[in-house]
Amino acid sequence: MSALDHVAASEGMPSALAQSRAYTGHGGRPVRTEPRWVRITLTAIALAFLFLFIGLPLVTVFYEAFRRGWAAYVAALVEPDALASIRLTLIVAAISVTANLLFGLVAAWSIAKFEFPGKSLLITLIDLPFSVSPVVAGLVYVLLFGAQGLFAAELAAWDIKIIFALPGIVLATIFVTFPFVARELIPLMQEQGTSEEEAAISLGASGLSTFFRVTLPNVKWALLYGVLLCNARAMGEFGAVSVVSGHVRGLTNTMPLHIEILYNEYQFVASFAVASLLALLALVTLIAKTILEHRLAEGDR
Amino acid sequence: MSASPPRLAFRQPSVIPGFGITLGLTLTWLGLIVLLPLSALFIKTSELTFERFIAIVTAPRTLHALQVSFGLSLAAALVNVVFGSIVVWVLVRYEFPLKKVADAIIDIPFALPTAVAGIALTALYAENGWIGSLLAPLGIQVSFTPLGILVALVFIGLPFVVRTVQPVLADLDKELEDAAASLGASRLQTLTRVVLPSVWPALLTGFALAFARAVGEYGSVIFIAGNLPGVSEIAPLLIVIRLEEFRYADATAIATVMLLASFVLLLIINRLQRWAEERGGRNA
């Protein structure tokens, strides 16, 4: 960009010069940008806002976690209840991510590879859990399987415990993470069309081998992306799990619930120590997401 | 002519196998995990008499909780539209140091668990916190007030506005701006008459998404809110409280109102997205 352009831009002059630049097609940038002081002010506002609302809270988590030093930090993490909550979180995430991974693939296959009426309604229904409050998501399972629930008698007869136990936590987590994998796969697979699959089938490949050798390689990055986001949400879910868990320490407390209990007991360092693990997970997820988005963009080309 | 016998034209014919089983599994799983549980809410609500339902929903504490949830969500979404627009504009149009980092951290509220965000914001805005200690001398208290709820809702809503508007602005044909400028429009006229109408649908969609998310938000709010009934108690928290008191009817009725609100919002958002896509298509 030349100095002249800058002058034209910063003076905001509707001059013949600026107009001629506009007509040249490229290098027309100066006419359509704001005066320098406006650009600097807007950039400063944006950065200050991001720093205040996103940067600082993130830094706070780690600052508070290490406030009493490394030893206190580690002690908070190896404490039995903390370890139990980490273990439970890993189990819940493993089950619910697997369930949503399988569902996502199956749903995307039926929606993206075939034409049938009611498809957009189906996609809307799959997305539905995103718009339901996590607390309501937890509540509906209590209404189904709780002591006053619709299936209370049946569950009691078979001696099955869902609410205030692992199955309830898993179900609530699957609910809130339901759309993650499917919504990454469906648009991509729709865009890719069916010609490659049709070619494979007409050359004699079975449906399954077509899926594993043709479709899956084409969507692997989007799949990984969906799994990553699904996992982050599964491990961090609070509201829905809080309603169905019963908060039994060392037994039905996931990491977010353990954080809440510690915080309410004024054990701030311990609370932030456990929180820092989840914050780290969020950071790793974001970095991996950025790398994957890069890959996905390249895959498009 | 199709080789397969003419059957119910539910779907268009295809050589690809597996339609029946995958659609069947999809519908079954969707039914079991999402639709059956949600209908349990309506079944339980229908067990209440209409008068009872109205009495619960219009009780002062319930009304106030709904008012806090919806009112502050609206305010937070508006804040996000204003500052989110500035953030998007700066990210798409300007070059500055740390731009990549600024762009990446916008997704933090998506990825950071709400409970973690909740305790971090509370610590930050508490009277001895980094920001709280600066505001205290001015007589501004954020933690444990409705203002705290607003802060938490702005935090969780920001990426919805930014990530909805950002691609639209990036795809915007800059020649339109050139044309406006060369025809003698001032920069402000170009922005309000050319740029704004093009990103308007996306902006509204982002606003609606942020609002919808904020209405149901629980984890990031309850730590900072102080949860004073009638002052800073949000509707999702009141559901939890009623549940813990074994007042299932109350919890169910409030949840039904919330769920109906999210259905309406979902409908509006779908419409907005379609509108935004049509707009985008015309500009492309």
From TrEMBL, chain A:
Q: Does the keyword Transmembrane apply?
A: yes
Its GO CC terms are: plasma membrane
Mind telling me which Pfam families this protein's record contains? BPD_transp_1 (PF00528)
Major subcellular site:
membrane
- Report the subcellular localization: Cell membrane
A Gene Ontology molecular function term for this protein is: ABC-type sulfate transporter activity
Keyword Transmembrane recorded? yes
Q: Which InterPro entries match?
A: CysW_permease, MetI-like, MetI-like_sf, Sulph_transpt2
Q: Which UniProt keywords apply?
A: Membrane, Sulfate transport, Transmembrane, Transmembrane helix, Transport
- Which intervals hold domain ABC transmembrane type-1? 86-293
Record's bilayer topology term: Multi-pass membrane protein
Membrane-spanning regions, if any? Answer: 42-66, 86-109, 121-142, 162-182, 268-292
Known partners and oligomeric status:
The complex is composed of two ATP-binding proteins (CysA), two transmembrane proteins (CysT and CysW) and a solute-binding protein (CysP).
Physiological role: Part of the ABC transporter complex CysAWTP (TC 3.A.1.6.1) involved in sulfate/thiosulfate import. Probably responsible for the translocation of the substrate across the membrane.
Protein name in the entry = Sulfate ABC transporter permease subunit CysW
Q: Species lineage, top-down?
A: Bacteria, Pseudomonadati, Pseudomonadota, Alphaproteobacteria, Hyphomicrobiales
